[in-house]
């Protein structure tokens, strides 16, 4: 899952840790308030990650910044919608959440972010 940019790789690791913490908390039967706190942290960390990437796009003149940022907006909207439903007490099936997470990792991190990492490393960012 490394993209070759230390800051981005660190954020990816943190996002995966938060996802694991949330899954463990849910399996342990933690309270809805605790689960919502963890979900909120995951949303916040995701938005911070996207902002970091977009700052780097601008700073280094990434030519595919617009498409990548549009993907960020799509993911952020979907993530906020799922989170709002959960906080509102809706029963969001685990399968829906897991599918979202798997697609995010497969399509976004291993696709969009990996491509940006390769470009950025070739242009001096590490």
Q: Count helical runs.
A: 4
Named CATH architecture:
Up-down Bundle
- How many beta-strand runs? 0
CATH superfamily: Hemerythrin-like
Apparent shape: elongated
Q: Terminal Cα separation, in Å?
A: 15 Å
Write the layout of secondary structure elements.
Elements: H1 6-27, H2 32-60, H3 65-87, H4 94-122
Helix pairs in contact: 1-2, 2-3, 3-4
Description:
The chain is built from four helices and no strands. With about 130 residues, it is mainly alpha-helical. The protein has a single domain, classed as Hemerythrin-like (Four Helix Bundle (Hemerythrin (Met), subunit A), Up-down Bundle), CATH 1.20.120.50. Helix 2 packs antiparallel against helix 3 (about 65-85) and helix 3 (about 65-85) runs antiparallel to helix 4 (about 95-120).
Give a brief description.
The chain is mostly helical and 126 residues long. The protein has a single domain, classed as Up-down Bundle (Four Helix Bundle (Hemerythrin (Met), subunit A)). Helix content is 82%, strand content 0%.
Question: Which short descriptors sum up this protein?
Answer:
about 130 residues; single chain; mainly alpha; 4 helices; Four Helix Bundle (Hemerythrin (Met), subunit A)
């Amino acid at each position: 899952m490394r993209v070759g940019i230390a800051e981005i790789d660190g954020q990816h690791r943190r996002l995966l840790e938060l996802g694991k913490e949330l899954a463990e908390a849910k399996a342990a039967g933690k309270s809805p308030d605790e689960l919502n706190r963890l979900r909120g942290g995951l949303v916040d960390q995701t938005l911070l990650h996207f902002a970091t990437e977009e700052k780097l796009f601008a700073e280094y003149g990434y030519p595919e910044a617009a498409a990548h940022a549009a993907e960020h907006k799509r993911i952020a909207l979907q993530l906020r919608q799922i989170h709002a439903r959960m906080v509102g007490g809706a029963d969001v099936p685990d399968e829906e959440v897991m599918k979202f997470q798997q697609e995010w990792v497969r399509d976004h991190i291993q696709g969009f972010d990996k491509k940006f990492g390769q470009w950025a490393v070739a242009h001096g960012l590490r």
